[in-house]
């Protein structure tokens, strides 16, 4: 089995000035403004190469060492978010002799992981449109072109949500049931959410429930979307159940909208909900319904997303501790 590159954070590493200097010299050459040495670089770039610890004092500087090597051959900078903007990835560089060893991908994975851990909902970067290889890497990691925040010609601005949302096939639901999906359900019950199970929830029972969902997905009566973080771990899920009655095929039900407690606070629940709503509308549904525990945090999400409360039923369901709680019914008309 191939060993992964070693990643470390160290803005004062003795190899870092040479890596940043090589990055900037190569970048200047690509732009057609060749300079012979770091001392001839524009002042802002020269400062980074000469004293990276000062230039990136507020940022995370990561270095990558290939398996079996003695010193780092790649670097990347994760800029801290400023003025409400998303954190930005910059200065990705791998020495030519160390390429094709996974260093760039490992550096990006760690930068994405740290950005997600900071609570940010997205991360961004810029890349020259002629840099085909880095651009291909960014695209493969889920970055998409967005409106420019930098008006320099030929510079692309890219952004990636830190939790990627995708529809799961029945086979994927079945594959994720024993681990990621079961963990989301267990975490929800452990956190006190009333999602149909008393606590504590046995992971095997949670996995069995999701296996049943996979069968429903195979029959076309339930759609499933999951979010995963940069490390591939599932961070959220939502399902859309279709009504089987002939006089109710115009409506569906949002069920099991779950966001892991470690991934909350960055808008993931709203994105999952919006994804399910958009699919429902695109497939001909005109009305959605759901129910949620009264006075729970989920109510703020649904009201903020345009859902209308239809009424409250007292003592509707027991929470994980066994206490009976009221439930509020919601609906939303689709365009």
- From the structure provided, what is the oligomeric state, counting identical versus distinct chains? single chain
Name given to the CATH architecture of the largest domain:
3-Layer(aba) Sandwich
**Name of the CATH class of the largest domain:** Alpha Beta
Class computed from helices, strands and strand pairing: alpha+beta
Supply the CATH superfamily name of the largest domain. Gcn5-related N-acetyltransferase (GNAT)
The biggest sheet, with number of strands, parallel, antiparallel or mixed sense and barrel status, is:
7 strands, mixed
Round the mean pLDDT to the nearest integer and report it. 94
| Rg over alpha carbons | 24 Å
Number of helices: 9
Kindly identify the CATH topology of the largest domain.
Answer: Aminopeptidase
Number of domains: 2
- Write the element-wise H/E pattern from the N-terminal end onward: EHHHEEEHEHEEEHHEEEHEHEE
Shape: elongated
Q: Helix coverage percent of residues? A: 25-40%
How are the strands of the largest sheet arranged?
8-9-10-11-12-14-13
Distance between the termini: 52 Å
The poorly predicted ranges are none
> What percent of residues are in strands?
25-35%
Q: What is the number of E strands? A: 14
């Amino acid at each position: 089995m191939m060993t992964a590159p070693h990643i470390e954070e160290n803005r004062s590493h003795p190899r870092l000035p040479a890596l940043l200097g090589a990055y900037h010299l190569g970048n200047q050459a690509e732009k057609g403004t060749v300079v012979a040495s770091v001392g001839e670089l524009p002042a802002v770039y020269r400062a980074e190469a000469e004293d990276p610890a000062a230039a990136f004092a507020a940022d995370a500087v990561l270095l990558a060492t290939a398996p079996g090597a003695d010193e780092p051959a790649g670097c990347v900078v994760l800029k801290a978010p400023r003025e409400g903007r998303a954190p930005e990835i910059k200065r990705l560089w791998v020495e030519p002799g160390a390429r094709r060893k996974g260093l760039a991908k490992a550096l990006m994975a760690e930068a994405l992981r740290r950005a997600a851990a900071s609570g940010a909902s997205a991360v961004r970067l810029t890349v020259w449109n002629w840099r085909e290889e880095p651009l291909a890497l960014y695209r493969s990691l889920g970055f998409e072109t967005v409106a420019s925040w930098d008006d320099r010609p030929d510079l692309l601005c890219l952004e990636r949500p830190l939790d990627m949302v995708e529809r799961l096939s029945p086979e994927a639901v079945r594959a994720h049931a024993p681990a990621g999906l079961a963990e989301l359900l267990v975490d929800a019950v452990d956190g006190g959410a009333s999602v149909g199970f008393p606590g504590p929830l046995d992971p095997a029972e949670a996995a069995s429930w999701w296996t049943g969902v996979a069968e429903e997905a195979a029959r076309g009566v339930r759609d499933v979307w999951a979010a995963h973080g940069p490390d591939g771990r599932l961070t959220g899920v939502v399902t859309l159940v279709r009504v089987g009655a002939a006089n109710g095929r115009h409506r569906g039900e949002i069920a099991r909208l779950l966001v892991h407690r470690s991934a909350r606070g960055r808008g993931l629940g709203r994105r999952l909900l919006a994804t399910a709503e958009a699919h429902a509308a695109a497939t001909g549904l005109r009305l959605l319904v759901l129910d949620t525990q009264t006075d729970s945090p989920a109510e703020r999400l649904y009201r903020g997303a345009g859902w209308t409360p239809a009424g409250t039923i007292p003592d509707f369901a027991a929470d994980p501790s066994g206490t009976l709680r009221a439930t509020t019914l919601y609906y939303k008309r689709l365009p």
